[in-house]
Amino acid sequence: MTEHKATPRVVVVGAGFGGLTAARELAKLPVQVTLVDRTNHHTFQPLLYQVATAGISPGEIAAPIRWILRGRPNAEVLMEEVQDFDLSSNTVITTVQRISYDYLVVASGATHAYFGHDEWEPYAPGLKTIEDALEIRRRVLLAFELAERRAMETGHQTALNFVIVGGGPTGVELAGTIAEITRLALAHEFRKIDPTTAHIILIEGGPRVLPSYAPDLSRSAEEQLRGLGVEVHTNEMVTNVKPGAVFMGETKLAAAVTLWAAGVAASPLGKKLGEPIDRAGRVFVNPDLTLPGHSNVFVIGDLATLKDKSGNRLPGVAPVAIQEGKYVARAIASDLNHQARKPFHYFDKGSLATIGRAAAVAQFGKIHISGFLAWLSWLFVHIFFLIGFRNRIIVLIQWAWSYFTYERGARLITGSTDLPGWTEAIEDSATNTSSESRSESNKIAV
Ligand SMILES: Cc1cc2nc3c(=O)[nH]c(=O)nc-3n(C[C@H](O)[C@H](O)[C@H](O)COP(=O)(O)OP(=O)(O)OC[C@H]3O[C@@H](n4cnc5c(N)ncnc54)[C@H](O)[C@@H]3O)c2cc1C
Q1: Most confident of 19-23, 112-116, 385-389
Q2: Contact call for residues 352 and 374 (beta carbons, < 8 A)
């Protein structure tokens, strides 16, 4: 264990759920905390899909890290990108400086992965950051504008396909909410096109959506999605993504907008720690969340991989990262008090996934609920954990407003007016505008 003469310095990398929790708890101890993040804000990722689908604005789900830690004089914040570590000299290397530490907490999270096909990314953005959410919002809203313009020019309505790849919680909430927008918020605002005829297609490679939930909840989620008008395809692997098209083997699906919600890759910083990692780049950690051979280096949240008592890998969810962040502060407090560290134990309080308006599933141990009640539980849990009282109130009011009026308040198209793949998508869709045989007509054998 490290011997401390002066106030120990704890460097925390990443101000997501894990790092921010650790920093807040550590700041209550007699230590100096340095929190380093490449952005100036903490993002509440579970509500990113609401920004991506124009329900709320970015400022309502993100908060400046500096503001969150304003009342903690022993905590400083640095907006810098960490590049590497020199564990032999207890140093963090950022793009601009070297920072020494007594303790290091690495919590740089994970992002989406394209199964080794990074060339798909420009045509199928994923959802991880505020920037991603704004890009998805831009593409979804732009597709309708371009379709209206084209209908004015040609006199024909273009068949609009929105393809979402990956049937996990993010894919399900994106598909459900986009379906809702087309059928409710946009339904009466266009003159040449009918947004309600847009096809929302969710493709899942496995046999069911929400694979981490119990089978009955997956079935319920699929029914709720179909009720919202989403075409759900299971057991279908996407084999290629090109401008304006998604391929499943020999089958080509025209896509005005493709969104990627499949695959996870840990932050590349995991590899820089020089210890074993799993296939997704997550770092294997000891039961006290430390890096093997380094009792003063903790790895937590989505970047770490650890099994529970039953041998199951802890999931990449916010409660795991938060509990791990709290644990790190307790472990360091034990060191300072010359007490032994206890191993980390995750307490699973349950899982909730939203699908759309009044549609959700919830799993609390053996209790499984679906529909409105699950959605209400989801809503209150998410509002409760949002950072900042102001944000909680605003989001609650906005949800109540859009629930009763069907409006989406943040429908702004900003930045470029170019939609990658649009030209190719409309060429393909020109041949298949029949809505009667729509799931088949969207597919072209190649
Ligand atoms: C769209 C979406 C929806 C989700 N929905 C849910 C949900 O409903 N419920 C749930 O429990 N979980 C949900 N999750 C998962 C949950 O958000 C993650 O498990 C959680 O954020 C992990 O926390 P973390 O601290 O490990 O990483 P993150 O919260 O991802 O934070 C990582 C931080 O590290 C910073 N960082 C990364 N690299 C560097 C670097 N090189 N230098 C400096 N800083 C760096 C990033 O800027 C970021 O602030 C969702 C995730 C996504 C993407």
Answers
A1: 19-23
A2: yes
> Could you tell me which residues are beta bridge partners of residue 251?
248, 445
Find out whether the beta carbon of 318 lies less than 6 Å from any atom of ligand 1.
yes
Between strands 32-37 and 75-79, the pairing is: parallel
Can you tell me which atom of ligand 1 is nearest the CA of 111? 53
Rounded CA-CA distance 140/232 in Å is 19
Contact 256, 147 (CB under 8 A): yes
Whole-Å CA distances, 137 to 140, 165, 256: 5, 16, 13
- In a mutational test of the pocket of ligand 1, which residue from 95, 105, 108 has the highest number of ligand atoms less than 8 Å from its CB? 108
**In angstroms, rounded to a whole number, what is the distance separating the alpha carbons of residues 141 and 183?**
14
Q: Are strands 230-233 and 283-284 parallel, antiparallel or unpaired?
A: unpaired
436 given a catalytic annotation? no
C-alpha pair distances (Å), 177 with each of 47, 299, 384 = 12, 34, 21
Q: What is the rounded CA–CA span in Å between residue 357 and residue 408? A: 12
| pTM higher than the cut 0.90 | yes
Rounded Cα distance, 241 and 345, in Å: 41
pLDDT (0 to 100) of residue 433: 43
For residue 309, what pLDDT is reported?
85
Question: Which tens digits make up the pLDDT trace of 198-227?
Answer: 999 999 999 999 999 999 999 999 999 999
Answer left, alpha or beta for residue 126, where phi above 0 means left and psi between -120 and 50 means alpha: beta
The string of pLDDT tens digits covering residues 67-94 is 999 999 999 999 999 999 999 999 999 9
Kindly state the tokens that stand for 40. Answer: 């100036």
CA of 302 to the centre of ligand 1 (A): 7
Distance (Å, whole) CA 308 – CA 344: 9
Q: What angle do CA 265, 268, 271 make, to 5 degrees?
A: 105
Q: Which of 25, 173, 236, 324 is catalytic?
A: 173
Instruction: State whether the beta carbon of 176 lies less than 6 angstroms from ligand 1.
Output: no
| Ligand 1 centroid – CA 19 distance (Å) | 10
